[in-house]
Amino acid sequence: MKILMIEDDLTIGRALLTAFKEEGHQAVWVRLAADIEPHLQAETFDAVLLDLGLPDGDGNAVLRQLRGAGITVPVLIMTARDALQDRLRGFNAGADDYLIKPFEIPELLVRLRAIVRRSGGAADAESQWTLRDLVVEERRMQVTRAGAPVTLSRTEFNLLLTLMKQSDRVLTRVELERRALPFSEGQTLDVHISNLRKKIGDGYIRTVRGVGYMVQRDAA
Q1: How far, in Å, CA of 140 to CA of 55, rounded?
Q2: By three-state DSSP, how is residue 133 classified?
Q3: pTM over cut 0.85
């Protein structure tokens, strides 16, 4: 795995770097919130390890900004804030998992592998997700159908990518709204799904009444 780690504590940061190296993982360590987005824009990471108490900003606020900018890399929050409301704020901001300090390194590694696996596997510079004649290129943020380009908004792209990564699995409305629509400018999930269907065509996104939506690889 390639991990972006945001941790201002020198002792913890050094210990984690050593642990990642020993396990054969590559880690980039930054200590400020301002350094996160430039790294995510310039490089491809499999996961982000985020401390909430940063010198120049709150981790939850930073995470909301990243999700709003369309950055979908899996994020694991590590923090000493252990109250239920703190955990809920983290998940609502867009976290994929939440680990309380102090923690054991083996548990951290297992959790990181799990969120990467749930997101569809380790990130690749040219990741493509294919559903019959529909192709989504994650790195380039491009969509084609039968070889012809399909123009989507950032929100529509994030929504389609989220569904494609979890093909053959029903995603609840709450999951989709948290992962793909953190800032939807008042539009509902149903509106975005409707607009997306108009652009890519019917037969790709299935409504599961009372639950959410999914894409099926073997659907006609």
Answers
A1: 33
A2: coil
A3: no
